[in-house]
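Help needed: design a sequence for this.
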């Protein structure tokens, strides 16, 4: 064979290959989910065929299907399933390389027309019908956002998505308020497994680590069913991430932003290392391994051990002046899918996120009781996030392996000036504080169809690890006597003669492991001549935590000859080596016996649930859940007063009734019992000083779990698909509600926790989401949607606890807002290429900490928050430019003592300011592109 022949054949092969690739690139896909019209349950094994061809497949264990390698054009699909009416959907247009989404609902076939009737609908009609069904068929009072809605919105992450859910308010991207109830009365699950808190002192999760394009759906259930965890009463947030993408893709995003109170301003901080920008400390601030143990301190240190310990203790008190840089964030996402000849599929999703910000809380006012202070707080923050999801579907089964990691690095520096009236001294106070938090969570889940009647088995096992590392939180105070003015003694002198938690160095580390597993079985059956669903399941969650805290520091040797000269030194040389070598200091450890602790808990649960239909319009989802909970906690030096060993068994019934008055109107009523359990930190006797709030925080080992009886009624009207008008009323009766309060039986304030026995909460809620084309039938108003959620709540607490000093025995509930206002306006321009969204939020005056006698109640002042979003799709819709303006009004964040009890903040009267500052408006610009 000569060279020319070889070249010709090679060229022919290359041409054929190129044409094949080009032809494949010109094909598209149709994908979606098939569900039951009445129940919303996904249907397994539905036959999906392209009419007029032999090409087709069956829906998988999730009720999903995907038809691939389709040429551009319009298609008609035929959906058939045993016991259901066959449906034909026409005018389904495929435009390569996009995937056309079509969700379908099927209705049961009656006895006389079984297998005879074919229901016909267009693509547009069926898209509207499926969205209607999804809205109306929820078994509980809930609100949610689907992946289709997220795709059309300018939302960047889950935190942005949550802000669109009716009745939910997100504060600081992680604290969620639902129906006016704070985060302690809400729970969250990610991919079916409970989401552990990354906060050591409260239930909270950084919702901004999951990119919005990886969220499959997000639902907030406001009423309970037996298959939901029972530890909520405000709402249960359920986030499901995607696993198998429709197409291979690569996406990246880059963004920057500025804060009006911070960016470009003078920024003071401690030592900055390169590793800080990657979310990790370089180890210089950790307590050395050769530092004397607490037992050695108790037994007494030798002079040599004292000297060695002082030299080993981190003593870098240097500060550096810089300029606060703009916020920067980056995001990278990769999706891969592999289809096999036997319709099996394997998919993988990977995501990395990075964010760095430098913020300043300038002139924080603290003017109350015995102090008049002004703080400046400088915070350097880095956040890292990673997500890796894998899934494999085979036959009627699906296995997923989902992983998420989040790390937050917050390095703060506080300066304080002002006057302390108790000490009659001018005061300067300095605090260096590094907090590193991380969360790793991994879940393996299986879904299997059993038999031919759509029965399902779901199982999952999950592991989570939480780390909170706070190395080298050091604090020092300087005092000056105003009476010494005009003399040589009129100077600031370091208060190092005694060591307390107010001016010591704290080294703390929290390490927690969570293990959980569960299985759920769902069986469709016939009851009372109607299709019904029986569901049962078991779950177990085990948590174990270790918390270690050391309070150490250098105490001045007041008898030393140079004691006064050293005490007048500036911060950078106060603890210099020459002072230590001269014998000016002693090394002390003031850690308490209960400051460190170990804890574990186990929650075992089982449930039975039935989903019954009565006629064509009535539906009842009812059943019972039983939870057994055991919690144990021991201080590092255990004692009967600090140890906890509590066991609870709770029977939790629930019933959710829905009556479909018309195809567009639902009436709902529900009753359910839920729980609120104390967190480990709320039970631990560990006393940690909060230098910002100038108080100790301490748990209460006598705290009990709270039980809540809930009742709801709701009217729902769905004018069109994606629109809703609803009115709700709810009542909640709390038994042993868990509340924080100012314990002031001594001379100082300690924020701790109590059970309040008699608590009643009443509320009404109004929701409206509708396009404005009812005003005028114009294209502009048709593409404009107004939505609002209004909640008005009345809460009343009657205190019967004996032996506790309280200013009032009747008051509102801690954390319960009297009202919430959420409103928004959304409009799309240029065939949905340009989207505008405006959001407004206001949360009413809330009680943060119940009052003692000397230190009264602490209240949160209401503020108006307006956010704006503008998103423009470019580069053939593959790219997107987003502009966000957050908190543009920049009103002050204020907490105060309501001394005059007039329910208003009046700083000019007797009211006293705990904290007040402007957080700044946030403006950002980002660009993302998908290959």
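Sure. Designed sequence:
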């Amino acid at each position: 064979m000569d060279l020319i022949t070889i070249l010709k054949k090679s060229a022919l092969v290359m041409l054929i290959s190129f044409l094949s690739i080009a032809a494949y690139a010109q094909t598209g896909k149709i994908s979606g989910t098939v569900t039951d019209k009445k129940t919303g349950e996904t249907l397994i094994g539905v036959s999906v065929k392209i009419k007029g061809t032999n090409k087709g497949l069956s829906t998988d264990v999730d009720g999903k299907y995907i038809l691939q390698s389709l040429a551009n054009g319009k298609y008609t699909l035929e959906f058939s399933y045993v016991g259901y009416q066959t449906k034909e959907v026409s005018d389904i247009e495929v435009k390569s390389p996009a995937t056309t989404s079509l969700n379908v609902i099927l209705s049961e076939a009656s006895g006389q027309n079984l297998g005879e009737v074919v229901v016909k609908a267009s693509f547009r009609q069926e898209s509207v019908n499926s969205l209607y069904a999804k809205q109306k068929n929820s078994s509980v009072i809930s609100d949610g956002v689907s992946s289709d809605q997220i795709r059309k919105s300018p939302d960047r992450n889950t935190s942005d998505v949550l802000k669109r859910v009716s009745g939910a308010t997100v504060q600081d991207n992680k604290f969620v308020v639902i129906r006016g109830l704070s985060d302690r009365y809400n729970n969250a699950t990610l991919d079916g497994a409970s989401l552990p808190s990354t906060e050591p002192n409260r239930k909270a999760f950084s919702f901004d680590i999951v990119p919005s394009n990886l969220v499959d759906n997000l639902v907030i259930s406001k009423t309970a069913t037996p298959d939901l965890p029972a530890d909520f009463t405000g709402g249960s947030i359920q986030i499901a991430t995607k696993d198998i993408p429709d197409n291979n893709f690569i996406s990246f995003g880059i963004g920057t932003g500025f804060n009006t109170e911070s960016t470009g301003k003078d920024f003071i901080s401690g030592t900055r290392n390169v590793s800080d920008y990657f979310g990790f400390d370089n180890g210089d601030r950790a307590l050395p391994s050769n530092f004397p143990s607490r037992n050695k301190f108790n037994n007494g240190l030798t002079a040599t051990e004292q000297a060695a310990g002082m030299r080993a203790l981190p003593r870098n008190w240097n500060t550096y002046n810089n300029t606060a840089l703009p916020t920067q964030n980056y995001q990278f996402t990769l999706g891969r899918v592999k289809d096999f000849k036997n319709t099996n599929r394997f998919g993988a999703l990977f995501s990395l996120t990075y964010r760095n910000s430098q913020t300043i809380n300038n002139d924080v006012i603290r003017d109350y009781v015995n102090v008049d202070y002004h703080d400046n707080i400088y915070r350097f923050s880095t956040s890292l996030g990673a997500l890796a999801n894998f899934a494999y579907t085979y036959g009627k089964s699906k296995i997923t392996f989902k992983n998420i990691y989040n790390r937050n690095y917050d390095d703060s520096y506080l300066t304080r000036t002002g006057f302390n009236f108790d000490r009659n001294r001018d005061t300067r106070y300095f605090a260096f504080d590094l907090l590193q938090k991380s969360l790793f969570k991994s879940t393996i889940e299986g879904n299997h169809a059993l038999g031919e009647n759509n029965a399902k088995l779901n199982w999952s096992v999950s592991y989570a690890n939480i780390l909170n590392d706070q190395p080298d939180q050091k604090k020092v105070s300087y005092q000056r006597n105003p009476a010494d003015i005009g003399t040589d003694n009129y100077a600031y002198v370091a208060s190092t003669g005694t060591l307390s938690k107010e001016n010591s160095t704290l080294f703390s580390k929290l390490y927690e492991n969570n293990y959980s597993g569960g299985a759920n079985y769902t069986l469709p059956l016939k009851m009372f001549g109607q299709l019904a669903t029986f569901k049962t399941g078991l779950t177990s969650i085990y948590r174990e935590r270790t918390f270690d805290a050391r309070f150490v520091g250098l105490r001045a040797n007041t008898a030393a000859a140079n004691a006064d000269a050293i005490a007048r030194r500036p911060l950078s040389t106060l603890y210099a080596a020459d002072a230590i070598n001269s014998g000016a200091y002693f090394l002390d450890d003031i850690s308490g016996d209960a400051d460190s602790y170990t804890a574990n808990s186990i929650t075992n649960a089982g449930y039975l649930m039935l989903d019954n239909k009565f006629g064509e319009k009535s539906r009842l989802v009812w059943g019972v859940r039983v939870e057994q909970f055991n919690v144990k906690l021991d201080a590092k030096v255990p004692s009967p007063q600090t140890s906890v060993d509590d066991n609870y068994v709770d029977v939790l019934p629930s019933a959710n009734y829905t009556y479909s008055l018309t195809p567009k109107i639902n009436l709902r009523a529900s009753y359910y019992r839920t729980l609120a359990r104390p967190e480990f930190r709320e039970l631990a006797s560990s006393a940690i000083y909060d230098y910002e709030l100038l108080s100790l925080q301490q748990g209460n080992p006598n705290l009990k779990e709270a039980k809540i009886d809930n009742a709801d009624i709701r009217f729902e009207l769905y004018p069109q698909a994606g629109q809703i008008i609803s009115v709700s009323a709810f009542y909640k009766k709390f038994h042993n509600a868990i509340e924080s309060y100012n314990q002031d039986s001594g001379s100082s304030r300690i924020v701790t926790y109590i059970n309040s026995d008699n608590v009643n909460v009443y509320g009404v809620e109004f929701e409206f989401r509708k396009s404005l084309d009812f005003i005028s039938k114009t294209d502009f108003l048709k593409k404009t949607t107004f939505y609002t959620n209004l909640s008005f709540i009345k809460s009343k607490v009657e205190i019967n606890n004996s032996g506790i000093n309280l200013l009032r025995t009747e008051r509102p509930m801690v954390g319960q807002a009297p009202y919430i206002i959420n409103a928004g306006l959304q409009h799309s321009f240029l065939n949905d290429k340009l989207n505008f969204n405006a959001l407004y939020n206001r949360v009413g005056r809330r009680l943060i900490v119940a009052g003692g006698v000397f230190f009264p109640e602490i209240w949160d002042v209401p503020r108006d928050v307006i956010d704006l979003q503008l998103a423009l799709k470019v580069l053939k819709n593959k790219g997107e430019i987003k502009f966000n303006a957050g908190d543009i009004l920049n009103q002050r964040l204020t907490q105060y003592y309501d001394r005059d009890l007039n329910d208003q903040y009046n700083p000019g009267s007797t009211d006293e300011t705990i904290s007040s500052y402007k957080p700044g408006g946030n403006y950002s610009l980002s660009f993302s592109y998908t290959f």
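Residues 3-25 form the longest helix (23 residues).
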